[in-house]
Write a structure and sequence with these properties.
The protein has about 550 residues and is an alpha/beta fold. The chain has helices at about 5-20, 45-55, 60-75, 100-115, 145-160, 175-195, 210-220, 225-245, 255-260, 265-275, 310-320, 340-350, 385-395, 395-400, 415-420, 425-445, 460-470, 470-480, 485-505, 515-535; strands spanning about 45, 85-90, 95-100, 125-130, 165-170, 250-255, 280, 285, 300, 325-330, 355-360, 365-370, 370-375, 410-415. The strands form four sheets. Strands 6-5-4-10-11 form a five-stranded parallel β-sheet, with helices on both faces. The chain has a three-stranded antiparallel β-sheet with strand order 1-3-2. A three-stranded antiparallel β-sheet has the order 7-8-9. The mean pLDDT is about 95.
């Protein structure tokens, strides 16, 4: 069977709803869950329970009507060999029990096609721009920026794997008050290096890197035109190197200074003015964001003639659409939560659907050392940088650990656990499964073939492992719908656990020829799935450990 059974069943459920005249009553996305308890089938839908809220009818009765129609379609489309049973269970869940024939065929597809068997064209080449990190070039990247980098890059990888045309962008806030403060901070340190007595303001940047920039400037023979610009260039080199070592690449670096000089901010305001979406009040220029769902209108030009923070962002997002992107995804820190509605209002004012912009709020991360949290303050220079984390635990552990909690949840990163080479360390546990499989296959000296008879795989642990492997596409779909790669880290740990449990209880080599070949095929499919998952997370796949 080439097609995924989930997509076939979703289509059948939709057809069944249409037959029952319920398609208009149910306008939500249809999806299938994987029951946590395998006693309740392999796939499940709560569509009857959701219809109950709309129709105020008994969900079990609704489920029975849908299930009856579903069974007819399964017979009509010759799928009863793959779906052996459809049951109504619990409060009205429709549960599907799949036949082992389906599992064997899907497993064979992975062995035959490799990672291509796991890919889909769900995105249909839709152009997507993910903007993430976008830290002000006023200092090295913090762990908060590092978490955004890991999430944004993994999400971009997943969407690309699902058939979207994804580009990555870093928005460079290279002008404004914080850049002026950077320049003044460097100037003061230059004076200090020249033995002048200074008072260093608390709101200036106090990290050691400011001294480094000042020392380099002091050693220069020629005079620098702008200390602020020099500082930005110096820090930007640090940021780019840190991101490169973290395995992060960007397709575009977009400068706010360029945005202003290009006249695009003025053009965006003129666009709104023509649509009668601007008005003057108290000497300021206001944007009618309440017309598009915001809780109040927003100032775009202050009474002193300066732009608010929102104004360049509006022009920047208009430019993203003009560059041909259909879906914009932004990763922001929690301090930007209040900007979501106003920016979505601007997108609607451009004539775009509000869903054309997705904003992910990535919560902060706390770093622990020896059980004690490390206090952080960017201005005071008291914070753990991405560079320090990379130097201490390495890229693989850093990326995996930054992804191990939902982006909406605060993350506690334990440096000591990340350094352990034991099963207590999740990334080590997953990589060890991959290395262990690679070693078994290497030592077998048996060529794995596409036509191997897999029906000899009957043990409980074998079937559980196969089922876990076939959940991979569903997990990626969850990552897409939630815009969060977190579930992939959970899945890889579960898949590794399923493999270790299987291997600890059943020998692969030294069995009958048929069973040895079948089990080698099973672990080869496991290797392909784990390898693909690690690649999407940006984590390496060691052949030996």
């Amino acid at each position: 069977m080439e097609k995924n059974i989930q997509s076939l069943l979703i289509g059948i459920i939709k057809d069944s709803l249409k037959d029952l005249g319920l398609e208009k009553a149910f306008n939500e996305d249809l999806y299938l869950d994987i029951p946590q308890d395998s006693r309740f089938g392999d796939l499940s839908t709560n569509v009857a329970l959701r219809l109950n809220k709309l129709l105020n009818k008994n969900p079990i009765g609704i489920a029975k009507d849908i299930a009856t129609n579903v069974k007819k379609y399964l017979e009509k489309r010759h799928l009863t060999d793959y779906v052996r049973e459809v049951k109504i269970e619990g409060a009205g869940f429709i549960n599907f029990y799949l036949d082992e024939k389906y599992f064997y065929e899907q497993l064979k597809g992975i062995i035959k096609k490799g990672r291509n068997a796991l890919k889909t064209n769900m995105g249909k080449n839709k152009r997507v721009l993910i903007e993430f990190v976008s830290a002000n070039p006023t200092g090295p990247l913090s762990v908060a920026h590092a978490r955004q980098a890991a999430v944004g890059d993994a999400l971009a990888n997943i969407l690309d794997f699902l058939g979207f045309n994804v580009k990555r962008e870093y928005y460079l806030n290279d002008e404004g008050n914080q850049i002026n403060i950077l320049g003044k901070s460097i100037e003061l340190r230059l004076s200090e290096l020249s033995k002048e007595k200074i008072e260093f303001p608390e709101d200036h940047y106090q990290g050691e890197y400011i001294y480094d920039i000042a020392r380099e400037l002091k050693s220069k023979k020629e005079e620098v035109k702008s200390i602020s610009d020099y500082g930005v260039e110096y820090i930007l080199k640090i940021i780019k190197k840190e991101l490169e070592d973290f395995g992060i690449r960007f397709d575009y670096w977009y400068s706010q200074m360029y945005l202003r000089k290009s006249g695009k901010i003025k053009k965006a305001l003129q666009f709104f003015k023509k649509k009668n979406l601007l008005y003057e009040q108290d000497g300021a220029l206001w944007f009618k964001t309440t017309q598009f769902g915001d809780d109040k209108d927003r100032v775009v030009v202050k009474s002193d003639g300066l732009y608010t923070y929102l104004t360049p962002d509006i022009a920047y997002h208009q430019d993203k659409f003009k560059r041909g992107f259909k879906w914009l995804i932004n990763l922001w820190g929690p301090d930007h939560h209040g900007y979501v509605n106003r920016l979505k209002a601007a997108v609607c004012a451009f004539g775009k659907d509000k869903e054309a912009l997705s904003i992910i709020i990535v919560q902060l991360a706390s770093i622990f050392r020896e059980g004690k949290p490390i206090q952080m303050s960017t201005r005071r220079g008291q914070y753990i940088t991405l560079r320090e984390v990379l130097d201490e635990v390495g890229c693989d552990a850093a990326r995996f650990f930054f992804l191990m909690r939902r982006t909406s949840s605060h993350l506690d990163f334990d440096l000591e656990v990340a350094k352990k080479q034991t099963s207590e360390n999740p990334v080590y546990y997953v990589q060890y499964a991959y290395a262990r499989i690679s070693s078994i296959i290497r030592n077998s000296h048996i060529k794995i073939k596409n036509d191997t008879d897999l029906s000899v795989l009957k043990e409980k642990e074998e079937i559980e492992l196969i089922k876990k492997l076939l959940q991979f596409s569903n997990i990626l779909n969850i990552c897409r719908s939630t815009l969060d790669p977190y579930m992939l880290t959970v899945y890889l740990q579960e898949a590794s656990e399923s493999f270790h449990r299987f291997y600890d209880r059943h020998r692969v080599l030294g069995q009958s020829e048929a069973l040895t070949k079948a089990r080698l095929s099973l672990i080869e499919a496991t290797r392909i799935v784990i390898a693909t998952g690690l690649e999407l997370l940006g984590v390496s796949k060691p052949e030996k450990m």
